[in-house]
Amino acid sequence: MRNTQDSVFYGVDRLTVLTCIILVLMGWLNIYAAVFNEEHQNIFDTTQKYGKQLIWISGAAIIAFSILVIDANFYTAFAYLFYGVLILANILVIFFGREIKGSKSWFGVGGFGIQPAEFMKFATNLALAKFLSNQNIIVNQQFRLRLRDLLKNYKNTLIALAFIISPLVIIKVLQDETGLAIVLMAFIIVLYREGLSVNFLIFGLLAGILFVVALIVAQITSLLVTLAVIASSAFLFIRRSRKNLVTVALVYSLAAGVVLTTNYVYNHLETHQKTRIDVLLGRGTVNLKKEGYNVNQAKIAIGSGGFLGKGYLQGTQTKYDFVPEQDTDFIFCTVGEEWGFVGSTIVIFLQLFLILRLIFLAERQRSDFSRIYGYGVATVLFFHLAVNIGMTIGLMPVIGIPLPFFSYGGSSLWAFTILVFIFVKLDANRLLILR
Q: Which stretches within 285-409 are classed as H helix?
């Protein structure tokens, strides 16, 4: 592969590309194992999922090459257009889409389906990066401030949040795709890298903890424990001034509000969502043949693999379809059963290596747009990795999101390809700027 300055591949980070290719190929082999049967052993059979996945992989390769051919400035110039088109597509799918598994969020194209919500991730990332970087240019020219100073401006912070929340609401409310909607919340982490106060993140985490505690124990007990913790912290670590006392009172009021509204929020969730929370928290008696079946079978499959696994195509849990959705949301179960602890570790290592590599590349960018976009890519991949594996081993509720570059599905594979390779192109363009 030529890598001269006039080559399409000039400046392309080979480690990132190679890692993506390895993950895709490993995923393809695991999809084959997940749906394998004696009657259809040809891995290139396009009537089977693994054959269809090969078509998606071929399409992803074409998409990746096309992204590298296009000038990097194209993605900056048309960031808002991508965002607007994908917002419109996610609305139109409600009227013209195909209903699959109770959710009308797919456009039918022949025997294949395209889910526009998947592509909202890269569009939101582009729009958010452009907004923040454009504001930074204006601020630097006029006031010589840094981007972290910009995010202290509440108006700009609210606009940035609107870029994230708008598609989230559309995907959740109109399409009822909870998993894909929640993924967009990961972009909030990008704002902290750019200067948003960490206090918001801390309060968000504490609110989540209080929500869980209030579900497990009585509300009155939760309120008393919350009051004791806040009061003790204020007494030990905060100077007793009027301003600080007001702050403590405000924090307790917000915390009390979270506790008191927990039951209301929980009771207004859909039945399957409440069931998943109950299974995760061990509330009441979990029926392992009904609501607890998926997670229980996933644990059995992963645990049965032992240290080295049962061998490729030898997994009994996988072969006899005990694990639902084992080629998509629960594909990590196939890895755990057939490849064991060693294989699972390799897959997780490759995923983490890709994420850390993207963070490294983001930090070396010379433009705010590229840096912000790069952190957005890394954040989305990490969220997918943590939630997907977390739900298969019972540490997180089942919300149904794919393992990056691994799970079956054309929409997710193409969306991840676009998401990552736009950044690969932006990073390569960094060298052209230096010429």
A: 293-304, 316-319, 331-363, 368-392
